[in-house]
Structures are given as C-alpha cells and as structure tokens.
C-alpha cells in the first residue's frame, strides 16, 4: 500500500468509502499561504456526488475540517490535515457483495493481496478516496495561482462521442456551465443525453478528460525518471478507472514524420523563446518549455452496472452479481476536478523541486 | 534532477552521451542471485547502436564492467555498480549546436533550467542513458525469471503502419528474428522498408511498442498512488521520445459500455480464478490479477532529422539548424529492450514490496 | 517540515498543541494484524499528562479514534488514521508569548524559518505531537510482539542522580510500578523527591532513559546509511529535548582498548552463535546480532521554568519571559513510552525491510 | 541494504574494500557550481591510509575520476559520478577469515542477513566505503562554502586522554598540523605516543571527534522527524565504529537544571538575535538558530587487533582468530574528514530543503 504522493509537497490520503471518514495530510506546504477554505470547498463541490441525474445519487456534503497546519488564516509550514466525515454510508447496500467478486472491480485483487477487504462500497479502492486528493489539490492550486499557473480540465469525449475541436478553439470557461463539463454547449447537451440513456439502460460508459495548464514557466520537471510528463502520467493513471494517458501529440504523434512533428523555435515580440507548434505539449526532455501543457486521460466505463454478470465468490464458486447501490453511469464529469487536482499536485511539487536546480548565484556572489 | 527510480529495488543512473562513461548503481537487489553477465550483455546488445542500417551508425561496444556487489558469481545484497565506457564519441559533430537549440530536443529546457548544458549529443538528455537502464533491467529480469515472470515487448506500429493482430495471435518469439522487432515477419519486412525510405529522405518516423508480461501472480502493485499501471506508465513515459501509454483496453476502452468492458470472473479447471476477457490488461485496482499484463507505449519521431529547420540560438537570435551526427530514423526497434527493462524494474520493485503486504502468519503462529 | 518517518512502515503525524486535534496516518502496516485498541490506549495513558504531581497538570484524556484501515478488528493493509482531539487547550495561557521568544524553545527558529508560528503551547514544536508517535508505536509493538520482540525503556538518571546498575541486574517490570518509571524502587523514590523539589523551586531537570529490546533475530538493520543504530539514533534525537544517544558501550567505549571492547563469539548449548559480552549493544555493522539491543538517550531539562528569564521579542527588543502554563519539571518519566514507541517504529521498519534481503530461495527452486 | 542518503542532495555509494573500485553518485547537486577537483582530492588525502605510522599501512592513492555531471568545470545539475579504483588490495591477507567470524566485526551479521559475504577486508562493511562519502562530502563543502558555512572537526579524545578545553578556546586550524588532528599541539603529541604505544602492543583504542560548523544561518533543519541534530546524529552513527552522538550540552545536559541550561536571547550590536550561551549547540527545535553548531561523536576501538581472540567459524565451531592485515590502531585521526563529510552532506541537504519553507513572497507579489 502506498497512499503517499510527492517529493516536497507530500500528501498522504486515508479512509475507506464506508468508514468513519476520509482525509489527507499535506506535509511540505510552504508557510505563508493564505488558506482559502471557500476555494477548497468549491473544488470538493465540483467532485461531490449528487450534482445531477447523471451522477451517483449518494449524498455527501463533503465538508472538510482543518485539523492542523493553519493559523491566523495562513499555512504554517507544518502538516495540514484535512478531514471529511462520511455521512451517507448505506453499508447495507453492500452486504450482498461481502463474498462476491464484482467484475472489473478491485475486490478479487485486494482480497488476495491483503487476505481480507473492507467490501463496503469497495472500501479503500473506492473513488471516494479522490475527495481527499481534490482537497489537497485545491491547496496546490492556491500555491500555483500565486505563480500565475492555472489548471483547467474538461470532458472531450463520452463513449464514442468526440469533441473534435482543439482546446485553443474552445472557451474552456464554459466547461463549468453544464453538468457534463464539456466546454462546447451543444456537444455537452448531446453528451448529457448519451450518458442519461446509458444510465436508463443500467449500463455505464467511458470517456476522455483533456487538461490544459497555462502559465508554467520554463524549467519545471526533473529528468531522468521524474520527467514532468512521467509524473503527470503516473498521477493520472493513479486515478480510479484510468486506462491511458498521452500528452502533446500523444498516440497520434507515433504516426508522424519528424519533419511534421518537430516544434520549431522562434523569438516572439517580447523576446521570449517560443515554439511555432506545440506537438511537445509544453514539455521537452521532461521539462516545461513555457508553452501550454496539454494532456489527455482515458477513463473506462464504470465497472458497476445495473445488470446481472457472471462471477465467482471468495470460495471460487460461480455466482451472479447483480447491480445495486448508487453509481455514476459515466465518471468523466466528476473526474474533471480530480484530474485538475492531481495535475496541480504534480506541478506544485515540480515548482518546489525546481527551486534547487541551480546554485544560489546571488547569495554566492556570482551575480 | 532525479536519476533515481524504485522503492526497494532502487537504481541510480549517471552519465552523459559524450562524457567518459555511463552507468548505474542498483541498491536493494536481494542477495543470492546468480549474476548472469552474458544475459545482461545480450540485452545491452539488443539496444546498442549499429545493429542494422535502420539504426544509428554510432559504434559503441556497450560492454559493461561490474564494479561492486557481486562476489563468487552471486549478488551480495550490496549495491551493484555497472559501468559502460563511452568509446565512439565524435564530439566534434556537435560543436555546431553548442549555441543552438535543436527543435523538439531538450537543449532549450536544459539550458534554461540549469543555466548551462553539456551540448555534446544532448548530454544527459540523450537516449544513451537508457543503456544503463537496460543493464539494470536485465538484473531485474533475472530476479523475475526465478518467479516465472517473462517480459516481452515488440514493435506493433511504425508511422501509420499498424500490426492489426492481437498479441495472443502472434508468435512473439519471432520479434527478435528481424531488425524491426515486429513478430509478424511480413509486416516486419514492410516496416523495415518504410523506415529505410524515411532514412533516405533524411526524415524520422514514430511508432508504438507493445509489451506483454506473463507469469505475474495475483497481488503485485501498491494502491493508491503506486498502482501497478501507474508505475508502468511513469516508467514508460520516462523513456526518451515517449508520448503516450495505455494498458488493457486503453484509449479504446473509453468508447465502450461497461457491459462490453467488464471482465467476468470464472474458475478454471485448475481451480484458479480467471477472467473471461482481459480488458483490464491484467491489473485491477492497481494490483495484478494473474492474467497477462499488457500495455502499449507510443514514441514520437526522433527529433534529429537530416533537414534544415528554423530555430533560435542561446541569445534568442534566429538560426538554421542543419541535421548532422548519427541518428536513428525510428527508435522503436531499439526501444523494445528499453521498454522491457523499465517494465522489469517496475515489476521487481512491486514483487519485493508485495512481500510485506500481509503479516507473517506462519511466524506469527496463526497458520 | 518533514513529519514523515519510515521506509515501509511509514507514519505521518500532524497537529499542533492547541489546535483542534493531533493524529497520525500509518501507511504500510501489513494486513491481518489484530488491532488491539486497549493496548494502544494503554500506551497513550502511559504518556498522557496529569499522571502524578511530578508531571504537567494539563488534563488530556488522549482517547483516540480509528478513522480508517481497520475492519472487523483487523488491519487491512490500507492506511490507518488515528485521531486524538485536543480537549484542555488553555490557549489564553499563551497570549503573553505571542510576541516573545522563550529561551531554549523553538519559538525563534520557527518564527524565522516559517515567517510565523502558532505560538499557543509551542504549536507544532510541542511535545504534544509525541502522543501521535506513541499511538503509531503501539501498533508497531503489536507487530513486533508477533515476532517475539519486546521493547522496554526505563529511567536510569534524573539530573545527577544515576542508577548505577546494569539493566541485566534489574527487574525491568518494576519500572511501571512507580511514577518515575525507574525499575529500582528505592532509587525511584529518591528520584521522585528530587523532581518534586525541582518543581517546587520552579525549575526543571534533565535525565536519561535506557532502552532494552529483546527477541530481535539476527539480520535487522540496513547498512550502509540506515544502520540499525543510526536509525535508532535519529529516532531518539527526533524526540523533543533529546541531546544525546549512545548504544552498547557508547561514549565509555571510546576509552577502551580493542582487547577489552571486542565481543568474542561462542556457540551456546542450543547451537546458537552468541557473544560473551555485549559491548556491541546487539548491533554489529548496523545489523542486529541476536543479542539484546541496548541504548541510552539523554534529555535536557524542560525549557519552560517558573522563573523570569531575559529574552527578546519578535522585534528584537529585550523582554522578560516569565514562566506560566502547565509543564513537566522533568520529562523522562513520560518520555519512557515515547522512547519505546520510536524504537518500535524503527524496528518494525527494519523487520519489514529485512524480508527482501535475500532471494526467495524456496520459490526460486534453490532449496 | 540502503546505500543512499539525502532528500535533495542525494548520494549513493557503492563498492567493496577489495573489489575493483568504490565510488559515489550524487543526484541533486545544483548546476553552476565550480567543481574544484583539487579541493576534493585534498579531502580524500586527509582520509587516505598510510599518512603516518599510526594509520594503516595500506597504500591507496585514492585518486578519483569524474565520470559524469561536470562540463566546462561546472556542475550541470546532472548526476555526478566519482570513481576511485582500488589498487592495493592484498586479498590474500584475508583468505584465513573466509570462514571465520572476527569478533566485533560485521562478518557474522552480514553472513546471516545475506547468506554470504565478500570476506576480503570486510567487503562492503569496510570503512573503505567512507572514501566515497568524503568525495561527496567535499562537493557538499564547496556548496556550503558559497553560503559562508565552514565545517571543522578535530580529535578531542583518544582512549581516556581528553582535551579538556572548549572549542572556542582552541585554534582549530592547528588540528591539521599534526597526524592526530588534535588542535592542541602538546596534547596531540601525547595522543600520538598513546596511539603508537597501543599499536606496538598489537591493540587498538577508541576516541572522540568534535565538530564545529560556523556560518549556518537561522532556519536549516526540518522538524519533526528530520530535525537537524537528528539527521546529524544518524549521519555520524552511520560511520563505521561510531557508538554515540551528542550535541550542545549533550549527555552532561541531563544533569543540569533548566535555569542553568537555558540559552537566554539578546540582540547584539548588529541587531542580530543571539544567545548568551550555547547549550543548544546551535539548534533549537531541530532548526539552526544562527549560533555555532557543535556536536561530538564517539568511536570504539578498531575491532581488528594483532592478538589471538576466541570466535566461531561459519559452521559454529570454535576457532582462534589471529590478527593479520594492515589496520589503524585508532580511527579518530582519519575519521576527522569523514565526520566533516557527513556533516556537510546533512547541512547541504538542509540548506536546499530550507529553500522551500516559505512561499515565494516576491514572486507572489506579497513583498
């Protein structure tokens, strides 16, 4: 088990879906940051269940308590512990799966790896854990905002329904105007119907979340193994239901010639080195190059469906698993703030790590 | 800079493309492993330059020296240091780029992040560093082999030319029979011509490497952040030129319904719990489920091309970068052993970490 | 700030002395351990304030809540979060020091490092944080007990009053029979009077805690940097007010000849390799050798005294700091369970790390 | 096995006493540092064997090769690999101990933990490994020097012969003027005779090394677990033959009253907050307070003596171990640069970590 992420801005999450609480401890947040609780709560609200009829009807207020690390409204450099009580845990919904392995869930692997499992709502493997990430990610966003960095994700695909426009041709602010979180209003409406139809059929559907990060200066990211995109990839792949990650040209880039793919440099009117194109997705050699950072994350359909499925129980005997409980027919709308949170956590860690890349020339008397 | 990977089987690589040497220190290899130098050299030979006319003509023997950690042919539990001298460093090939930023290389980002850079052959950002990974990965493979685990990668796509067969329908052993490392001989021949044409045009082309890992028992992988596929993703994305990673159903999975995507469980004739399909790619909840692990890694076209390109120099002035040096027109054939090495490093770390997942029931007197 | 300790059994503590709560997240506790809440509470009770008139009169029940990681009375391999609410926070006692730096406290260094500080009761620098360590350490003790390992600390010195007997000549069980936690009843009584006199004078006094660990098999400890005694030393020195650490012969060993100091080996009647003496303190080359592990930790006098002291305020102006609040005149009685907790945390981490020292010979088909 | 130390300035050492080479990889050295090879060689020379008749007569030039990380005389932010070939390995001296456990050496514990060992000269457990630390520590010193920080150690005790003067009453520069490295010339001469007598008797003797660090600003050190003195303690205890560590008042502080021990603050003529006394050893709450950092490290007598000793062999049978090989009768003179190196490594890590303690107020537009 490793529930810890980060080198300098380090988070540890805890909590099961139907236990008393979930939460996160942030160790390494610099002191002096104004701790904007409304901002954090707003991001939690964007992730919380029950936002519309295409999200799970579980009701969780997802209000958080600050247990430590903040004094007089500022971070103190000490660990920040944030606690979210679980309130609407209908554990009885899960009695029937205590001895069953739900297809494409983590029941079987947890049971085998650990010898037991908290089967209620998936326990630790539930995406409920991501609320803790969103809270921590919101703190990271506050730090990034001070550096002029903004992280914005949106839904670009639901099932086979794709938004064919590039992010630069969209008004990303519109993503938050609809329950699907697609910045194209017409497409958002079609996606909503698609998801709702899927829900009515007792089925689920996958999708893709795109993410754009603006304002990152040149120099964030740590080669060789902790390349910026490698950490972003790990962070995204650590989110429940994620099956793939690509940045910049991504998989499509494999089909191009170098002469098509290379991003030529030029100097803009402000004297800043820029690239004419951005196949690199804002990252070269694992280090940000000052262009927009752009990446995409693919989510599989939610494993819980309201249909009978073949499976086995913990004794290996065949059983029929029938869908119960309250679940999302499509995770991508609620995944948007989770993608943003994980991106923010990666970026803030890289921001801090970059501070020690060069010697202190001023202090050293060199400049 | 982070040139260290792994939690228990920890590697640190070092070395620049045109410095005296590259190498790796492995800290955490268990004692008692028979150290098969021929096996390690064989993997280095699979990666080394000059294998055919579609790879770079740089000549490096890539022979390694064991500096520590091995005694009487066995690992001792102490750090294993492996050294590979650079021999064919035509540094003069690079004098012309000392002050230029090559498009889609790491020249600009390294220069800005660190204030200087070893420009010869890309210095630390060169894929030459991956030879050290291959050496370490070969040691990991030796440990995995004892557990019955095999890692096999192959080329499934070059440019837009795709091998449409599933891995299960291929004889993967054939991949090593041709210079492209594609297990379909006919497709391999076509890919070879494609790459060679590209080379003749002074251009480069991308591609995709698929990887299959067999024999992994249930239980490897550490949720929440260090999910097996998240670590595999990070490891692949840390390889030079990689733009995307997907496992199991991958990006295509986003387009499916849950009822299509879920892998139903059954018990096979040996009493083993299996899944009927493998959209999960052998991983559920971040933990191996006993099925084959399957993932795909997309590589962009090599940034160095034998054509003139617009760029800027370190003073921001416009320059024309012309292609020189010896480079691969397509990296995927040589990337195959690198993908395998990184996969082996991830898996061996997870294998070791899994050893402490449950209490020692026997010692504890429980069983 | 680093509030995280451990490689495999990793703890993160949080909380300020006068904030809402303190607590700890344990990431990496193996699954299947019976979670004995009474045992944990008992250790917290041994540390809690108000035990006798020679400890601080602050009243804290120090009852803990299990937020996660335990199901059906067993650990699940998932993070265990333990929460202790602060109840008796007389923050008004501290208003007077909001702008003063108390001598030999961390007020000045925290203020300078972080730009601000939670001055109430020392905030994060308060020894109240150690309650979280004791809770985590008790979980570690439960794991160790399964391996037959016992950790027992006791007070061997208060001020200049020293217990001259070796631990082997004492009945350590008697340590818990008196409020000083000295296993020699007569000495305990004298120490009690000494501390009480010191308290009446408004002063404080230092002391030494000895610790003995029995039952550790050969092989725990990780050379080169994470030697068992190096980790024990770091762990002890991380406890508030600690000034020194020694193991085995310690500082006195510096005065001996090799011919006096060396521990000769012999084979005992059970065929076990033993040493005739134990100057090594049970550790050779950083690895346990099967003998009792023995070390000593020196604590300075508590910095808070009920006397006026010269100091400066946050503006650098001279002030007189007068003693207020409720404080221990001597920390060593309450430090005993803290020393044990930190020792247990080190040992359990080494126990787990040792599991991967050698290849799996059985699985590998070698044995 | 953990041969890695450091959070941001991370070192990995490798190599056995009688293998081909030893060395170190430094991952995380900031770019732009002038790499002074003479300075590094000078520190290696201070540690190397054969300096006088009171050190081992093994002859090692201990010249190092820079394999990576330095270009045009400057560090590049990439891993710095330093290699030292072993030249004078008289392995045949050790054939007789292949099957014997030397008393108070690591032979028995390594053999048991790892199932085998490189017995030649102690293999990995040999203090020869510390040459790699000294090389890395010298790089750390170069960085510290830019910040005005100096690390100076010296011998304060040999056997029972103690230098009773405080460091402030000594001219520490004199320590390097004599082979014992004691800054009091008269005492140095007496210590030299003492050690030489011990050598003639075929015996060994312990000693104590004091260390003073000047110029450290307020704020270095990371509470809670990575307190500056806790990391210094771990670093010292990780050195071969170390039995104890204390800082500031140390063990003697346990015997004092708070009213004697507290360091009162005042503001000096330059407006700097200072303490009247320095029982704190320059560290309060785990963070440097701007005063001199002062600590002491106790070394046991070298385990190898030129006398017959009882022991057992690897089959548990009684044997007589007779002293052979070339060994130091007293390690402390050569330990001086090792203590300094480890201190420098701790301090440079804390220097870098401190850079992220507070938000970037200037960049954030707050100041």
Automatic annotation (TrEMBL), chains A, B, C, D:
Pathway in which this enzyme or protein is active: Metabolic intermediate biosynthesis; chorismate biosynthesis; chorismate from D-erythrose 4-phosphate and phosphoenolpyruvate: step 7/7
GO biological process: amino acid biosynthetic process; aromatic amino acid family biosynthetic process; chorismate biosynthetic process
Free-text cofactor note: Reduced FMN (FMNH(2)).
Cofactor(s), by name: FMNH2
EC number: 4.2.3.5
Residue sites binding NADP(+) per the record: 47, 53
GO cellular component: cytosol
Class of the enzyme per the UniProt entry, highest EC level: lyase
Keyword Amino-acid biosynthesis attached: yes
Residues reported to bind FMN: 124-126, 240-241, 285, 300-304, 326
GO MF annotation, one: chorismate synthase activity
Record's keyword terms, sorted: Amino-acid biosynthesis, Aromatic amino acid biosynthesis, FAD, Flavoprotein, FMN, Lyase, NADP
Assigned protein family: Belongs to the chorismate synthase family.
Subunit relationships: Homotetramer.
NCBIfam families: aroC (TIGR00033), PRK05382.1 (NF003793)
Function according to Swiss-Prot or TrEMBL: This reaction introduces a second double bond into the aromatic ring system.
Protein's name according to its UniProt entry: Chorismate synthase
Species of provenance: Spirosoma aureum
